[in-house]
Specification:
With 269 residues, this protein is mainly α. It contains eleven helices and two strands. The chain has a two-stranded antiparallel sheet.
Length: 269
């Protein structure tokens, strides 16, 4: 590294485009191939049975078969996708609003900070019986549980972003009489976008996890329910096929969302 580069803090240095001469995407593919090779090797070893693990080829065949099944697409894939999107949207809006209120009112921040510190120590899914008692069964308790699981990541990262606005810029806005929503739109949100984007990416992952996990215990349709039902009926190949679909869709959706959110990260421009 050049002398000039050594004087720059590590967190401000641009990420290297190549590692050991190879681009990052190649390393991602290498890691994926290695992991798939390990799974394939274990599946063909005498250490496991077909009731525990099936070969990758069988998983792929089952996944392709499921994607050609209209009932699976409608009752499982589409249903879970809608639950994930609604939960993610709700967590995003509520999380940003909470962060704005905490940033604007010190008393609210002091009141909520202890809860933010211990939030993920509380087993959120243990509260689902209360949600069911209040809202009944169906989509509503799933969305509420998943949103509650994802909202804090948006709140925490949003608050970090709002707090990072330089004082001089904030004072400039006030001198121009930018108050209320004008200040939020022209100063706070643009300055906090990189941190908010990071929180949104985390929230999307949490929404996927929470929706599928909640469907295991609350739903009668959806990907989570389908995987659980296949397991209960010892349809192991179908279970792994559905898991492969979940993994592939989560990977693609996360990569797509990350690419979109990076366009709002002015620190990379």
């Amino acid at each position: 590294m050049s002398a000039r580069g050594r004087g720059i803090p590590r967190y401000l240095r641009p990420m290297p485009k190549r590692v050991l001469g190879l681009p990052k995407i190649v390393w991602t593919i290498v890691v994926l191939i290695v992991l798939l090779g390990i799974v394939e090797g274990v599946a063909h070893s005498p250490a496991v049975t077909r009731f525990e693990l099936v070969p990758i080829e069988t998983m792929v065949r089952q996944a392709i078969s499921l994607l050609g099944n209209g009932s699976f697409l409608k009752d499982a894939l589409l249903h879970s996708s809608l639950m994930i999107l609604v939960s993610f949207a709700l967590a995003s809006v509520v999380g940003i609003l909470i962060a704005l209120v905490m940033h604007a009112f010190g008393v609210v921040r002091r009141a909520l900070n202890p809860f933010l510190s211990v939030y993920y120590s509380v087993p959120t899914f243990a509260l689902y019986p209360i949600v069911v008692v209040i809202f009944g069964t169906g989509a509503v308790p799933i969305v509420i549980t998943a949103s509650a699981f994802a909202v804090i990541s948006v709140t925490v990262k949003g608050l970090e972003g709002f707090d990072s606005v330089p004082v001089v810029i904030d004072k400039l806005g006030r001198s121009l009489e930018l108050t209320g929503m004008k200040r939020v739109r022209t100063i706070l949100l643009p300055a906090a976008l990189p941190d908010v984007a990071a929180g949104l990416k985390l929230a999307f992952g949490y929404s996927i996890i929470a929706v599928l996990a909640t469907e295991f215990i609350l739903a009668t349709q959806g990907l989570g329910w389908y995987i659980s039902n296949e397991y209960d009926e010892f349809q192991i190949a179908g279970m792994y096929g559905a898991i492969l679909i979940v993994a592939a869709l989560a990977l693609l959706a996360n990569a797509g969302l990350g690419a979109v959110l990076r366009r709002f990260d002015w620190r990379r421009w």
